[in-house]
Amino acid sequence: MAALDSAGKLALELEMPARRRRRLGIVFWLASSWIALVVALAIFADLLPLADPFAQALLARRAPPSAAHLLGTDALGRDILARVIFGARASLEIGLLAPLAATLVGTLLGMLSGYFRGRFETFAIGTTDVLLAFPPLVLALAIVAYLGQSVTNVILVLAILTVPAVTRVARAATLAIREREFVTAARALGAGHLRILRREILPNIMLPLGAYFLVLVAVTVVVEGILSFLGLGVPPPQPSWGGMIAEGRDSLDIAPHIAFIPAVAMFLTVLAFNLVGDSLRAITDPRRGAS
Amino acid sequence: MLGLIGRRLAYLVPVILAVTALTFLIANLLPGDLAIVMLGDQATPENVAALHKQLGLDLPLWQQYLHWLWGVLHGDFGTSHRTGQTVLNAIAGRLPVTLELLIMAELGGILIGVPLAILCAVRPGSAFDRTVAGIAFGSLSVPPFMLAILLIFVFALRLHLLPATAYVPLSDSLLGNLRSMALPGATLALLEWPTIMRVLRSDMISTLQEDYIAMARAKGLSPRRILLVHALKPSSLTLVTVIGLNIGRLIGGAVITESIFALPGVGRLLLESIYLRDFIILQGGVLLVAIGFVLVNFLVDMLYAVLDPRIRHGRA
């Protein structure tokens, strides 16, 4: 891409995202509200007047939505609404905690390797290269298979798998900032490494990393869904969206709502996190097409 | 160019070695005793100890690793204790199905993504462009298993057009094979096109601003010729990159689609070995898939360097 004559082009290219960003206004708030709603339902699930998500009613199996069961019942006669809401708990617990842990570790590693460079950087980036050399889902499946399936193990595995990506993003952001004037100025004023990292670098990489975190949440919810769908994630009978979709698959022909209701809940949640993350990224990163 | 290949190749060796080490550690450091799994009900302390000795599990970990690595270097990835089949044979038998699936996914993704990208790039910001952008963004949020189930529901259960889980080998019938691969291929292709479309679109928008395009227009070349020859050709680089970047996700997608559509591919082999606790196959399979993945990424890197002498890294 020719850099010299790009000013005019840039204006042209920026026209699109700018228009889109303004349009995203309503969408952004809708997405945020959906996330808030799902989070609130998941937190207060115990206090809500819901049916017992484990109670089986063998006479009311695969019932369509009705007044007694607002979203119907599954193949064992369990209330789908209650299971979707309790399933949100598992999805959000894994979907938020794994990226959170990965972001903490990855930011630290990325900042240190981008700031100090040298051997530490070589080692850290080499390690991320090895982890990135595995197709992520295959590695996740293998580790869960050996570790045994539990919510804690899934969080652990997905966090480890996410660290390399965060490390790279944090390192790239740090590299861009460490040569800036205000860092040189801070150093000239006699600030130590710790102070520069904490007061000059961290605040400047926090916003892009925050936006990236939200996208990671979306990705992690999907991967958790895949693991649970394959029977290697949240152990049944504990409800999870992926597990519910897998169970619903068997009655797809006679009662498609059993699979599709958790699927819609999952899709909307993933979409909402992607939308919010994308709008935040567009705000924090003015470059066109930056990812 | 040669220097670049040399440097990348030199880097490949430690990465692959580290991949073998990590694969070995996952399989051997994590809890679970192969001997107990193999013996099942027969597991008495004496039997377990004897089998440990036979399998070399009583040796220190680094000796076990070197022993295993020595075998791997000689093409011995181990033998399944369940079926007696070697890992290489098991994978080789399953590989064609997975390759066919991946190629179908990639072709389908290109077939949908490239025309849409061109149409969007011609009029960026138009209603059509925005609609496609929205659909692409939404598609990126659809988990693969969800799409697979939706396609089964519509095309197999409601319309009865295509089979959902009746795999037909290519050697039996070409048409039957394509029919049985249609839904799994479509699942992955529908997840593949948005990334292709998005990257190619922004690449073409910037290409269309170049001076030589204005020149071509001034010469009076037809818009179609300009789009397809002058603008799309340089963007083929971008396509190579996107495809390379997507492969890791696509392999994951293959595991899921093979499982849902009951295709006898490598992904399903790995899943079966997990469910049946066949750790030798799992370990060898994960290693082979990872090495294949590393090599494909290497090839994509090299292809990229060959196609563009400037090696515009960090752009896509």
Q: How many E strands of chain B?
A: 0
Percent of residues in beta strands of chain A:
under 5%
Beta-strand level of the residues of chain B, as a percent range? Answer: under 5%
What do we call the CATH topology of the largest domain in chain B?
MetI-like fold
Q: What share of residues of chain A is helical?
A: over 70%
Taken together, the total number of domains of chain A comes to 1
CATH class of the largest domain in chain B: Mainly Alpha
Number of helices of chain A: 9
User: Quick check: average pLDDT of chain B?
Assistant: 82
Category by helix and strand content of chain A:
mainly alpha
State the order of secondary-structure elements of chain B, H for helix, E for strand: HHHHHHHHHHHHH
Largest sheet data of chain A: none
The name of the CATH superfamily of chain A reads MetI-like
Please describe the biggest sheet of chain B, giving its number of strands, its sense, and whether it closes into a barrel. Answer: none
How many structural domains are formed by the residues of chain B?
Answer: 2
- CATH architecture classification name of the largest domain in chain B: Orthogonal Bundle
Stated plainly, the CATH topology of chain A is called MetI-like fold
